[in-house]
Design brief:
Largest sheet: 4 strands, mixed
Radius of gyration: 17 Å
CATH class of the largest domain: Mainly Alpha
Number of helices: 9
Shape: globular
Strand content: 5-15%
Bound molecules: glutathione
Helix content: 40-55%
Number of domains: 2
Structural class: alpha+beta
CATH topology of the largest domain: Glutathione S-transferase Yfyf (Class Pi), Chain A, domain 2
CATH architecture of the largest domain: Up-down Bundle
Strand order of the largest sheet: 2-1-3-4
Number of strands: 4
Length: 209
């Protein structure tokens, strides 16, 4: 059984979606980030940077894992799903782009544009431009590829999709990006994605493009 320490955020949803996709038994331990649960010493033992998501695999010697990309790779290895070793290099590139660029940059945009609007023109402008360029790259790539790493759905898609699912927060006009919208909607229709998206709020509905 996997214990998922999480909050209802895109990074948290990566792992609930993956767990639904692979059909592993799991339970969710909720952290209230606003109240500072992530800084409690018990949690820092398994997540040194005080970040969710983190898991403990109770069926594997209580193995603890932090960092969503590492967790996705671990769960792929355990399940044999969504990380085709013959396509490893493509999956790795798009997964790392999500971890190092797509998530952190869109996260900065949310920080300035959604939570601190009007406080920093430079911040809002910079991260709007970066987010727009990320959307343009994804659009171009998905005009030639069904999924991020090629023909098959992989952990690169599972890592990236929850960030695009926050498109109403970054207000970039997802529906104007036809190929990205096609990819987004196709993944949004997957049963595991619908369930994983609602892992903390059973009434949560996936936003339309
Ligand atoms: N690179 C990390 C980022 C995780 C992350 O930024 N988590 C946020 C929520 S989405 C968090 O725990 N924030 C709490 C804090 O910064 O205090 C991952 O992908 O796992």
């Amino acid at each position: 059984m996997i214990e998922l320490f999480s909050s209802d955020t895109p990074n948290g949803k990566k792992i609930s979606i993956m767990l639904e996709e692979i059909g592993f038994e799991y339970k969710v331990t909720k952290l209230d980030l606003g109240k500072g649960d992530q800084f409690k010493p018990e949690f820092k033992k398994i997540s040194p940077f005080s970040k969710i998501p983190t898991i403990i695999d109770h069926s594997n010697n209580k193995q603890a894992i932090f960092e969503s990309g590492a967790i996705l790779i671990y769960l792929s290895d355990r399940s044999g799903k969504f990380y085709d070793k013959e396509n490893k290099l493509n999956i790795d590139q798009w997964l790392m782009a999500q971890m190092g660029l797509i998530g952190p940059m869109i996260g900065q945009y949310h920080y300035f544009y959604r939570f601190n609007k009007g406080l920093s023109e430079v911040g809002e402008k910079r991260y709007f431009e970066v987010t727009k360029s990320i959307y343009e790259v994804l659009e171009g790539h998905l005009s030639k590829n069904k999924y991020l790493a090629g023909d098959h759905y992989s952990i690169a898609d599972i890592a990236t999709w929850p960030w695009v699912a926050r498109h109403e927060w970054h207000d970039i006009g997802l529906k104007n990006y036809q190929n990205l919208s096609r990819w987004y909607s196709e993944i949004a229709d997957r049963e595991a994605v619908i369930k994983g998206y609602a892992f903390m709020d059973k009434n949560a509905l996936i936003p339309k493009p």
